[in-house]
Amino acid sequence: ILQILEKPEELITFVEDRPGHDIRYSLDSSKIRTELGWKPRFSFKEALEATVNWYKNNEWWWKPLSTEEVLHPAPWRLGCSR
Q: Under 8 Å CB-to-CB from 41, ≥6 apart: which residues?
């Protein structure tokens, strides 16, 4: 994402894992490819670039959602006020 946005890697901030954090997600599309002949329309890179561009062009949609509470490095530690 930083490469797409032409931003430096120094912007990365490593934070502690959240409670219940999943170590990784492993996907395998071989069954749907074999049994149904499915294939992706776009490469991962193409789809990621399209997604980043959508967010760049639709700031009106996501900007109101980017509150301090959401941007906190460990929001689960803030407690629930609702």
A: none
What is each CA distance from 48 to 5, 8, 37, 44, 63, in whole angstroms? 11, 18, 23, 6, 19
- Global pTM exceeds 0.85: no
* CA gap 68, 19 in Å, rounded: 20
* Per-residue confidence (pLDDT) for residue 28, from 0 to 100: 93
With the CA atoms of 40, 60, 4 and 75 taken in that order, what torsion angle do they form, in degrees rounded to the nearest 10?
-90
| C-alpha torsion angle, residues 11, 49, 63, 70 (rounded to 10) | -50
Of 8-12, 40-44, 76-80, give the lowest mean pLDDT range.
Answer: 76-80
